[in-house]
Specification:
The chain has about 130 residues and is an all-beta fold. It is built from no helices and 11 strands. The protein starts with a strand and ends with a strand.
Amino acid sequence: QVQLVESGGGLVQAGGSLRLSCVASGRTFSRYAMGWFRQAPGKEREFVAAIISSGGSTYYADSVKGRFTISRDNAKNTVYLQMNSLKPEDTAVYYCAAGTYLQTVLVVSAKWYDYWGQGTQVTVSS
C-alpha cells in the first residue's frame, strides 16, 4: 500500500508560479516511478509529467514542456512539480500517482499508476 498526499495548490495570476508537493508513505519510495496528472472541469484526466525511481530521467507532456519541472527527494519521500509561466489553461485539479511496477519506466497512461493522491486545486486567473 502507498498513501499519497498532495499540497501546494492555490490561486495564481497568469505568468506566476506554484510548487506542488506529494508526500508518499507505505512502500519504499525510492523503488517506484511517480507521475503528475491533471483534470480540468468537463475534461478527461491528462498526463503532465513523470519521473523514474532514481530521479535520473523525466518526461513531460508537450503542453507543459519548458514550463514545468518534476523532481523528487527520495530521502523525504516527496515528489515535486514546479510550475512556472502558468496559463489559465493550466487550471485543473492536479494529482500525483505512484507506479509501483514502473521503477525505471516512464509511462504517460494513467492505467499503469496504481496509487493516487486526493488532488490539489490549481487555478490560474487571466
